[in-house]
Each structure stands twice: as structure tokens, then as C-alpha cells.
Amino acid sequence: MAGTDHSREPVAGGPAIILVEPQLGENIGTAARAMANFGLTDLRLVNPRDGWPNSMAVKAASGADRVLEGARLFDSVAEAVADLTLVYATTARSRDMVKPVATPEEAAATMRGHIGAGTAAGVLFGRERTGLTNDDVSYADAVLMAPVNPAFASLNLAQAVLLVGYEWFKTGPLTYGDEAVGGGALTETGLRMPGTRPATKEEVVGFFEHLERELDASGFLRPPEKRPAMVRSLRNLFQRTGLTEQDVRTLRGVVASLVRQHERGRRGGSE
After folding, report:
1. Residues 155-202: tens digit of each pLDDT
2. DSSP letters along 244-255, please?
3. Which one of 1, 36, 47, 164 has the fewest CB atoms closer than 10 angstroms to its CB?
4. pTM of this structure
5. Domains recognised in the chain with CATH numbers
């Protein structure tokens, strides 16, 4: 706790930090401590192995109680990112999918602009031993990779959170009148768009599930052993476009229209 000024109002907010199936309470605690160092307060836990709450996490957090007390528990990555409109997935290795890649510095600037525009962002962190699965990464808009020694690229969970938190804190909020905006310029994903807004992950996943149901019914997602890779490819394709809420509604309407047309054609052919 050395160097902590308890008279200062704590900085709060920032992107959500989402720990996917963390294995040890100690690792959750040290990650929470790293979050508190840089004013991050939104901690989300997906199926922690040793359950929650966890006394070892409290000990390891070294006073970052506010972060732990506010932590939320989720059953799946989909639920944990449902309200977010921009998600990064941390990884130390390349993936068999096409996604934009950002450094922590680039991601922090983009998230600052995104959050400054009134929408929510978050970062996915994987399991200590195996990291994120490809299915986990498919929920992300981009991959976050730190420039580290390729011969020893693995960071522990707290180190990874600390690195992202540090870059986030560096961007620093600037205030103009009553409006707080980011230290970095608003990027394309952070711009306000008249008449619509970026789609939440809940809305995007709803579209994915709608599309996949109909593709299953039409026989497109075959053979069964290739379905997971095909689904990931389709999801990644749409994730790269930066869908708005209006885009999702339009796409779902397109799918529904095609299904209705197919049903009408099939009924007509049977008459």
C-alpha cells in the first residue's frame, strides 16, 4: 500500500476486464489489484474454477476491495460481453481467423474514444494455462497482442491486466466544459452516428444465432464436423464490419425475408 494517498478520490470506470475461467483466487486478486492501480473497476468473472467469492482473492488483492466487491459472475462469455459494443481478446499467439490486431496502446486509445462516445468496451483475458479458445475470441472485434519477446511471450494474468490498465490510464481523460472525452482522438468505432448506435454484443450474438438457425435448416452448415469452423468464420466476418444497432435489425430482416420467400416458393411448388 506504499505510496497510496487515501485522501484522494479514487479514479473509477474504464473498460470491463473479463477473466474467462480463471483458475486461482490469487490470480483474480492480483488482477484486481492491477485494475485498482489504473482506475479500472468493472471486473467480470466467467466460471472461476474455485468458485466465488474467494478468500484467497481478497488476500492477494492487497486492498483492492472495491474492485472485488463489485465483481460480477457470469456463466458464459456471451453473457459477460452482452452489453458491450467493442471487445478485445488478449492472446500471445496467432489464430486461424481473420481479425484486426492491436497493441495495448492502440486498443486503449480506441476504447477511450469509444467510451467517450457513450458506449461500453471490454477486454477478454483467458485461462492461466491455455488462454482463450477460438470460440471465446470469436466474440471479440479485434485481437490485442503486446509486443513482447517472442521467445518468452507468455504473461501471467495480473501482468496482462496491468499492461492494459497502464495503457488505458496513460490516455487520460480530458474535460471540455461538461463533456469528458478521451485523451486520444475518437476513432471510427468511437464516433457517434446519427440515428443509431454501435450494436451491443447481445444484439450481435442474437443475429448470429438467428442466421445460424436458418443456415442449419437450409443445410448450409454441413458436414457437422466442419460446422464450428464455418460458424466462427461467419461470426468473424460480421464482427469486422463494426455493426450498428440498425445494421443488426436490417440483417435480421434480410434473413427473415429470405426464409419467407423460400417457404412461399416451397409451398407453391407443392401445390
Report:
1. 999 999 999 999 999 987 543 334 443 333 333 444 445 567 899 999
2. BHHHHHHHHHHH
3. 1
4. 0.81
5. 16-190 (3.40.1280.10), 201-270 (1.10.8)
